[in-house]
Amino acid sequence: MSRRRRRGRRVGLPAPVLVLAVMAVVFFALPLIGLLWRAPWSNAWHYLTDDDALTALRLSLICSLWATGLSILFGVPLAWLLARVEFPGRGAVRALCTLSMVLPPVVGGVALFFALGRRGIVGQYLYRWFDFTLPFTTTGVVIAQTFVAMPFLVITVEASLRQLDLRFDDASRTLGASRWYTFRRVTMPAVRPALVAGAVLAWARALGEFGATITFAGNFPGTTQTMPLAVYLSLETNPEEAIVLALLLIAISFAVLVGLRDRWFGRTDRPMAAT
Amino acid sequence: MLRIHRLLVTAVALLGFLGASCGSDDSGSEATDVPAAGPSVSGDVTVFAATSLTAAFTEIGDAFVVEHPGARVTFNFAASSELVTQIGEGAPADVFASADLSNMAKLTDAGNNAIEPVVFATNLAEIIVAPGNPLGITGVADLADPDLIVVLCAPEVPCGKYAAAIFENAGVTVTPKSLEENVKAVVTKVTLGEADAGIVYQTDVTAAGADAAGVQIPADINVIAEYPIAVTKGAPNADGAQAFVDFVNSEQGQKILASFGFVAP
After folding, report:
1. What distance in Å separates the CA atoms of residue A63 and residue A59, rounded to the nearest whole number?
2. Other CB atoms closer than 10 Å to residue B114's CB: what's the count?
C-alpha cells in the first residue's frame, strides 16, 4: 500500500492535471498575497495590540471552540444515526441537518430569530418564563456558529461511518462487548481521523462565521463582536487595521490546519483507505 | 452524433448572440458620441448608491428611462464606504451617490470625481419603535433606560455617527445591546421585535410601513444627514451620468425622493 503510494508520487501527474492544479493553487494564493502586499507592516504591531482587537480575538477563539465542542457532542450521534439507522425520511432528515451549509448565513440568522428570538417559536417562552433571551448574548454567538458549523462535522463523520466495515462492530458485539462499549472503543477510534477533520472544518467555519452571528447575536465589543465582525466594521473606517486583523485570523487558522493535518492525518488516513 | 451536432449549433448560436450584443453595445456608445449635445442619452448608466437610497433610486431609475428611452440604468447599492472602495479599485461606476459627506470626500480626495459633488437630499434621524409604540417612548432620554433593548448603528457607519452626535446633543448616555453594520439591520431588529428601539433615518421608518413606528427627534438636538452625488472621473458613460445627476436634481427626481421621506436640501 505505502509502497504503491510512493511510486505513484514519483511517476508524476499528467501535464494538464498539473497545470490545472497549479492554477488552483495560484487562485487561492493570490488573494492572500494581495493581503500581504497591502498590509501596513510598520503599523501592524500597533493594530494587533489594540484592546478591541484582542477582545474580539479572545471572544472568537472561545466561541468557536464552544461551537466545535457542541458540534462534536451533538454532531457525532447525529452522524451515527444518519449512517447506521435506517428510518423513513432519512434522506430528508440528512438534507435538513445540512441545510445551513447552503442557506445564506444572514437568512440563517433571521431563521434563528424566528426559532429562538424574543418572539420565536421557543424563544418567546424562554423570555416569558425565565426572562431569558439569546439574541445579543455570547451564548447567541455560540448558537449561531454551531448552527452554521455543525453540518461540516456531520457529513465528514457520516461519510467515514458509511465506509467502515460493519464486521468490526459485529465482531466486537459477538465477543460480548456492549453497544456503548463498541461505539466507544471500536467505532469511534476507526472514525477518529474523520472526526478530527470534521471538527477542524467546523471550527474553521465557526471562526470565520459572520452573517448568522451579526444577524442573530448582533455586534457589541466584549459580548458578541467576534473577529470577523471587527474586521468587517474596521473596513468601513480603517482598511489598514482590517487587513492586519484579517491576517492574524488567517495566521491562526493556517497554523491550526497545518499543524493538525501533519499530526493527525499523516498516518491515520492510510488504514482508513484500506478498509 | 446528432446530440453533438445540436450542441455545436447551440454553442455557435450563443457565440453569435454574445457577439451581436457586444456589437450593439459598441454602436450604442458611438451613437451617443455623434450627436454629443442634445437631451438624448443612451447606453448603460451605472449608478453606485448608498443602501438607504435603494427604494427611491430604483423608482428614479425607472422614471429616468421613461425620459430617456435609449438609456438603461444599472444600480449597485451598498454601504457608501464600500462603494468608495470599489470605485477606488477601478469598478466601472458612472455616478456615485453617498449617504454622507465624508465618504464623498474620500472620493474627491482620491481625485475620482468628474464634477463637484452636489447635495441632492437630506434625511433626518428618528427613533424607530414597534408599531403603536407599546413602550410609550417619547424621546431620546427614554432610551437611557437600562431595561430597554436599544440597537444602534456602529460608530464606523454614518447612522452610528449621527446617533452618537444626537446623544451628545441631548446629554444622554445610552448603552446599546448591539452596534449594527448598517441601518437596515437596525430596522430589521426592531421590526422582528428583538429590539425595543433604535436610531435610524426617517426614510427607513417610512419604508418599514406598518411594521414599525417612528418617534421624532426635536430639531435642536437632531442631525441632518446630507446626501451628495457626483459623476465619477472614469465614467464609461459620462453623458448618461450627467443626465442622471441632472434628473435626480430635477423637479421630478426631487418629487420621487420626497415621496420616500427625503427632504430637499
Report:
1. 6
2. 16
- The model's confidence at residue B25, banded by pLDDT at 50, 70 and 90, is very low
Architecture of domain B40-121+225-259: 3-Layer(aba) Sandwich (3.40)
Number of domains in chain A: 1
Q: Does any CB of chain B come closer than 8 Å to the CB of residue A237?
A: yes
Residues of chain A contacting residue B181, judged by C-beta atoms under 8 Å apart = 214, 219, 229, 232-233, 236
In a domain, A184, yes or no: yes
From B177, B181, B194, residue closest to A220, measured CB to CB: B177
- Compare CB distances from A224 to B79, B149, B178 and report the shortest one's residue: B178
| Integer angstrom CA distances of residue B119 from A132, A269, B88, B94, B245 | 46, 64, 21, 17, 11
Q: According to the model, what pLDDT value does residue B6 have?
A: 52
Three-state DSSP class for residue A179: helix
Looking at domain B123-224, what is its CATH homologous superfamily? Periplasmic binding protein-like II (3.40.190.10)
Q: Is residue A147 part of a domain?
A: yes
- Smallest CA-to-CA distance from B64 within B226, B228, B257 is with B257
Helices then strands, each counted (H, E), chain B:
9, 9
pLDDT of the residue at B17:
42
What confidence tens digit (pLDDT) does each residue in A180-228 have?
A: 888 888 888 889 989 999 999 999 999 999 999 999 999 999 999 999 9
Q: Which domain holds residue A190?
A: 104-275
Task: In whole angstroms, give the CA distance from residue B176 to residue B160.
Answer: 11
Q: Lowest-confidence range among A146-155, B3-12, B110-119?
A: B3-12
Find chain B residues with C-beta within 8 A of A224's C-beta: 178
Instruction: Sketch the domain layout of chain B as residue ranges.
Output: 40-121+225-259, 123-224
CATH classification of the domain holding A228? 1.10.3720.10
Q: pLDDT value at position B8?
A: 46
With CB atoms and an 8 Å threshold, state whether A119 touches B194.
Answer: yes
CB B248 within 8 A of CB B71: no
Q: B12 falls in which pLDDT band (50, 70, 90)?
A: very low
> Is A80 part of any domain?
no
Residues of B in contact with A133 (CB under 8 A): 194
Higher per-residue confidence, A258 vs A8: A258
In a domain, A180, yes or no: yes
Lowest mean pLDDT among A2-11, A139-148, B53-62: A2-11
Query: Could you give the ipTM of this predicted complex?
Result: 0.75
Place of cell 497591502: A38
